[in-house]
Amino acid sequence: MSTGSLQIAGKSLRSRLIFGTGGFMSLSIMEAALEASGAELATVAMRRVDPKSPGSVLDLISKAGCEVLPNTAGCYTARDAVLTAKLAREALQTNWIKLEVIGDDRTLFPDGTELLRAAAELVDEGFVVLPYTSDDPVLARRLEETGCSAIMPLGSPIGSGSGIRNPYNLAIILEQTSVPVILDAGIGTASDATVAMEMGCDGILLASSISRAKDPEQMARAMRLAVEAGRLANLSGRIPRRLYAEASTPAEGLPDFEMDGDGDGRRAGTQEENDSPPTRSQR
Amino acid sequence: MKVLLNGETVEIADGTVVAVLNALDLVKADGIALAIDGEVVPRSTWTDLKIAPGQRIEVVRAVQGG
């Protein structure tokens, strides 16, 4: 059953789950989880070459049939983020960049000013910019106006596993944004991902919820199903929330089990009661 | 000649990119990028590049993250 593919900057992705490679205890665990997730796009960071630690995350991403999405993780200024993006483009031969410009060490929330500055410069330089942003609809709008190819609002702080803290702001972002909205950061478990997709997100980016789960491979499979379930539910037109019940079973044809002692076909009781029995619809 | 390579002062054989790669035990140049004194050096210019003593060199590659 097709629910349509995710379109970002002219690229078509069948999987709406973007895989974050950060936080895995080992490359082999990461490899198993990546396969189980069904993702077609996986993030990497750019760090100094270290002769003491070989091993290639790129090989595993490629083996899984995924494309690579470099990020600017660890950057606190527009200057550093732009430089990192350019290094990533050189190293990986892609002009796609997940743009992160952090403003605070404890929350890892983005620095909006630096993020906008970096986004504008990178869009100008021909990058496909996917910005990690806050749940502020105004900042999201500015990023879209700047030319970003998607908006990636956080649900809650990176690695906090707290799900969607501000669904109202997320709903506003979803309503106002024309480019894809990818929930990025804070997902804790499968239901968080499903809720995000039910709300109308176009995709989810997951890292810690998988990499730091007790069983990352199994969680990756759960997340794959969660994203698919949420997307299907979103497309299927849910029933509204009601304060009161709405019976799902029709009242017509309801049998009458009241006692009729004299066999006259009428319920025992006063003449008046028998002359005007309650109607079926009042039951 | 001495340069600052990935945060450490090291001796490299000469001012070529190959010398830099050797200093990092890199056999091939796939999947890496180079910045000198805060500017990205495009791969297309590597063969003719002449690195000067004391320059600040960063060589990066993709790792798990994000």
Defining traits:
heterodimer, A: 283 residues, alpha/beta, three-stranded parallel β-sheet, 10 helices, B: 66 residues, mainly beta, five-stranded mixed β-sheet
Give the SSE map.
The complex is a heterodimer of chains A (283) and B (66).
Chain A: E1 6-8, E2 11-13, E3 17-20, H1 27-37, E4 41-48, H2 57-63, E5 67-70, H3 78-92, E6 96-99, H4 112-124, E7 128-133, H5 137-146, E8 152-153, H6 167-176, E9 182-184, H7 190-199, E10 203-206, H8 208-211, H9 216-235, H10 271-275
Parallel strand pairs in A: 3-4, 3-10, 4-5, 6-7, 7-8, 9-10
Antiparallel strand pairs in A: 1-2
Chain B: E1 2-5, E2 8-11, H1 17-23, E3 32-36, E4 39-40, E5 56-64
Task: Explain what this protein looks like in three dimensions.
- The complex is a heterodimer of chains A (283) and B (66).
- Chain A has ten helices and ten strands.
- Chain A has helices at 27-37, 57-63, 78-92, 112-124, 137-146, 167-176, 190-199, 208-211, 216-235, 271-275; strands spanning 6-8, 11-13, 17-20, 41-48, 67-70, 96-99, 128-133, 152-153, 182-184, 203-206.
- In chain A, helix 1 (27-37) runs parallel beside helix 9, helix 4 packs parallel to helix 5 and helix 7 packs parallel to helix 9 (216-235).
- The mean pLDDT of chain A is 92.
- Chain B has one helix at residues 17-23; strands spanning 2-5, 8-11, 32-36, 39-40, 56-64.
- The longest helix of chain B is centred in the first third of the chain and has 7 residues, at 17-23.
- Chains A and B meet through strand 4, strand 5 and helix 3 of A and strand 3 and strand 5 of B.
- Strand 4 (41-48) of chain A pairs antiparallel with strand 5 (56-64) of chain B, so a sheet runs across the interface.
